[in-house]
Amino acid sequence: MADIKTVYDFLEKAGTFYLATVEGDQPRVRPYGAMLFFEEKIYIMAFGKTNATRQIANNPKAEICAFKGQTLRIECRLVEDNRPEVGKALVDKMPVLKPALGENGENGVMYYIADATATFFKMMEVTDIVKF
Predict the structure, then answer these.
(1) DSSP secondary-structure letter at 60?
(2) CATH number for the 4-121 domain, one of 3.40.50.620, 2.30.110.10, 3.30.2350.10, 2.130.10.10?
(3) Over 90: is that where the pLDDT of 123 sits?
(4) Contact between 55 and 24 (Cβ < 8 Å)
(5) pLDDT (tens digit, 9 = 90+) per residue, 41-71?
């Protein structure tokens, strides 16, 4: 049975994942790649003051989708956590982001994935479900 680390490892291997948020009644989807496993949580980063951060502030429900030989879909709620140690951990993991994010990631917004159901699919068949 898979666990939260299995979900994170899959996202890492996929490299790019797609985040769906809601603006009014219109879904919005965009590619992301900045992620972190920290304190037993999966974090994603959005650059500050973007449409995505405004949409998440208005409605923290989101879906994440990634593909690498199979599909992973995560239904979740995104919780903002802008402690400097979280931003610094991301910058340490992905130093290429430091010029844009700053020393401690202060120019980004860190979210952890909460109340999640992660479903793995191969073709049309569910292969595993992880709740965290």
Answers:
(1) -
(2) 2.30.110.10
(3) no
(4) no
(5) 999 999 888 999 999 999 999 999 999 999 9
